[in-house]
Amino acid sequence: MAEAHPVGFQWVMEAKRRGATIIHVDPRFSRTSAVSNIFVPIRAGTDIVFLGALISYVIENEKYFKEYVVSYTNASAILREDYQDAEDLDGLFSGWASENGQYEGPTWHYEDVELHEHGAHRTSESDAERSALFGPRVKAHATDRTLQHPRCVFQVLKRHFARYTPQMVEEVCGVSPDQFYKIAEHLCRNSGREWTTAFCYSVGWTQHSAGPQFIRAAGILQLLMGNMGRPGGGILALRGHATIQGSTDIPTLFNLLPGYLPMPKARADKSLIEYLHNYTAWSGWWTEFPKYMVSLLKAWFGDAARRENDFCFDYLPKITGDHSHMTTVVNMADGDVEGYLVMGQNPVVGSPNAGLQRKGLRNLKWLVVRDFYLIETAEFWKDSPEHERGEVSAETIGTEVFFFPAATHVEKDGSFTQTQRVVQWHHEAITPPGDARSELHFAYHLGKRLKELYASSTDPKDRPIQDLAWDYSLHSKRQEPSAEAVIAEINGYTVADRKPVNGFVDLKHDGSTACGCWIYSGIYAGGVNRAANKKPATDHYLYGHDWGFAWPSNRRILYNRAAADPQGRPWSDRKKLVWWDEASQKWTGYDEPDFMKPVPPSYRAPEDAEGIETISGDDPFLLQPDGKGWLFAPTGLQDGPLPTHYEPFESPIANPLYGQQCNPGRLEYDRSDNQLARPISDPRFPYVITTYRLTEHHTSGAMSRWLSWLAELQPSMFCEISPELAREKGLQNGDWAVVSTARAEIETRILVTDRMQPVKMGRRRVHQIGMPYHWGNRGLVTGDSTNELIAFGADPNASIQESKALMGDIRAGRRDRHKGIAKGRENAPENELRDLPIARHRPAGRHNVRAPFSKQGDQT
Amino acid sequence: MPTGFFTDTTVCIGCKACEVACKQWNQLPDDGYHFTGMSFDNTMHLGASTWRHVSFTERPVPLSGADTGFSWLMASDVCKHCARAGCLENCPTGAIVRTEFGSVYVQPDICNGCGYCVSGCPFGVIDRNHDDGRAWKCTLCYDRQKAELEPACAKACPTDSIQFGEVEELKQRARKRVEELHENGVKEAYLYGADAASQPGTGGLNAFFLLVDKPEVYNLPPDPEVPTIRGNQSWKAAGFAAVGVAAAALLSALIGRTAKNES
């Protein structure tokens, strides 16, 4: 965190000064470790074993926060009899359909859950519009609050993690039992009524073939210890770069619309009614779904969006499958994509398998790059390892490249949303130089020109462009659209008078309100841009409500109803945040209560309740259909209801816990230009490679390698290795080495340091090579990109590549510029080893990509 | 009231924001792009174009109280703006002056590049620019202070490792911080150059440091001394020597004469 998020880390240092214990778990000793109280080196990709053992420790030693667990989590829910755990099926859960390569069926549900087919209960359209409550009704009817029932979530959880012992941690992660117990005791001592513990993670958890399950494991631990929804608790996702949170909220993702509304699917969501049926929840806050969707359509299509025409729902593009980054790139490489707009991204350096990225770009008709400089992605046609090897030349590449200079964040108005969901406004401090323009300018004027181009068309397919509401006030000579007008639209307004709404509770499903992103609603309440509030923390006030705007409703701690006990009293005076006030009969406190203010703790939802009335007074997790924190996830995940340890795609060992080696639901791209090593200890690639960022550079280096003051601080691509590995391989500090994987090889300078140590897994020692990834062949300082080495291949929930744990080799010397690594089928390893012994990976579709139909997630 | 820096190295995270902020504000050029292989330090030392420099020291032992098996000491070095500044006292042209903020400032329009200041600095801070030959170093952001802004490095430091303020106030804060660290088990914490008593060779530093290992570990001299501090002593010694030599000459002349007479 100190390394990649130094500004946010100031608060960690502040906490340390006030007595907090900082524990850092990482494959290498980094700048964060340097200022931590405890550093735990770990083998990359094994965090579920570590976290699972902590979960097991907390349960076995009865250190969990019992009252919190019983009341606020689904620990007491009883599961179906036909549920089978990974413990029973050697690494798979019940419901695995090997012919489809995915989990199917209802076996993960609570017992007695009413299961409905999507849309099956539609009676009439008006009825559906009033309350479109479909999909499975996820509410446990059968519970055992003593947590003793053998099929209750708590007992299932206990059994699932029983073999995740300190000994297993040593064998898999390379963490000694002594150190494990020390961490476990710290966590338990710092949790409960009086104390809370927070987890911070970043892409070190997400970029694995089971990344989202790493975070789930932390979620389970935090729920067991009562650390969610309370001050000083929680799980903080430190995002990949500035406003990645914002780009998931108002997404640049193929499968989401603003505010986490799912993107309509071509087959399932043929009309607005069907769409609303498919995604509106039976219970919990997502019963409000139709209001948000209709208001979004009103914001986008204005007067054209009317009840008679489904509020222009037909205008939305519908997805037909996986259109994630990696799948799109393989489609590009196969010549199925014509054009590509790259804005603020440098995929040739920053995305996995750089060689395949370039192959994709070479097969386009046109490419638009918007950036500050002529980055590698803009100049891929001129210079690349393929050019060096004589495989391609500029004359043979047909892609037409357009480059647009971009304005920096100080040259435009706009906002950043950070990890705590705080939207922070920035103002244009200086005018962008020359032709540089903001993204807003580019998108607005592109839309304007498209509208002009299609203005006289009578073809119905052009109606979406014609009907698009595209009115934003312009200012300055360069015709810059007003960013504040955009935030006003995002906030939402009543259609009749265009007055800003006060928040999403004002939104309607009848078309009388418009709102660009329901979760941000309130950001422009009263016509005031609250993101621009800047009362600093040095003014000493609690929770910083006047610094920016935190969605939703300027709430600083999510699910803060859990900061009070089931009766609505604070768990302790020290950790007081939100409570039920008997006198005024409403929820109150230091933060904006995350609950329906007048609903008392004693309220119990009747069986026939609908909408948000299904949430009882002690259901703090109100976005969940049952209002409970999910220790066990009955729906929503592609690869299991409980986190389970699978080895990475490429690993030094066979999975010691299960016969199933890798995540059965993983996305694999089995192509000759994306080869994998043998799944288990490939003799060609004996070392674990893990990747990371340095403080001195920003991601692909597009913003830092062109700046002398940053370039001089880390001028060269390097790898970090232990003195032991250096001795074994004859590598000298400061010299050159070649690092290779099944995809490619790159050259790098060598930094020999005691900060890297071989992992001791029982009797086995495994070397890890640390590699930052900021360099490319353009800019003031150049070097090979680590992403040449990384494979396409991802987790099934969020389509994130596995770039934090892979296998490779290292040797002294420079890279051969005329010869690449040997590729082709004859070098392909026995892939079947990857799935032992049950599942067979069954590629589907033209590109051998097996992608689940619906996926949630982000691209960090 | 003199102003200065208190650099608390125990909260430094080595982000180098100070180096960048300093170069940006003062529009300094890069030092070239050299991979040194010396931990994460690629600018190596203070110089004519690097006025803040973060050092990285890898030690095989942890800090006391930390369970990290190892330690990585990071510290942002800067001109110390000594109470008795060797550079200033060595400067023959009067280019180096003490400002109203108590800082030591090189006036670039007066400096003639003689380089006497370079040999006068016991810390090796001040350096001549290879292009124009003049001497350059940290100005304690004289221009920013004139505008009532804190120096760029302190402003950019995310963890308040670099604290700017009135030196006397900073000293109190620093002493409290040392006590706090001692209470938390970091027994090795101490202040470097906080006063004349602990560092008579400089008369104390307006930019002083909190360290957790010997000064040498941070590339700081353990007992710095500005050369001019022995000026009086030297002149006195030279005076005695001159008198001695004269006396010896006289004596030898007398003895010679006596001997001659005797012969």
> Roughly what percent helix of chain A?
10-25%
Which strand-content bin applies to the residues of chain B? 15-25%
Query: In terms of per-residue confidence, which ranges of chain B show pLDDT below 50 for 5 or more consecutive residues?
Result: none
E-strand count of chain A: 30
From the coordinates shown, what is the CATH architecture of the domain at 667-834 in chain A? Beta Barrel
Largest beta sheet: strand ordering of chain A: 23-25-24-30-22-28
CATH class of the largest domain in chain B: Alpha Beta
Give the distance, in angstroms, between the N- and C-terminal Cα atoms of chain B.
73 Å
Q: What integer is the average pLDDT of chain A?
A: 91
Terminal residue distance of chain A: 15 Å
CATH architecture descriptor text of the largest domain in chain B: 2-Layer Sandwich
Structural class of chain A: alpha/beta
Mean pLDDT of chain B: 94
- Count of all domains of chain B: 2
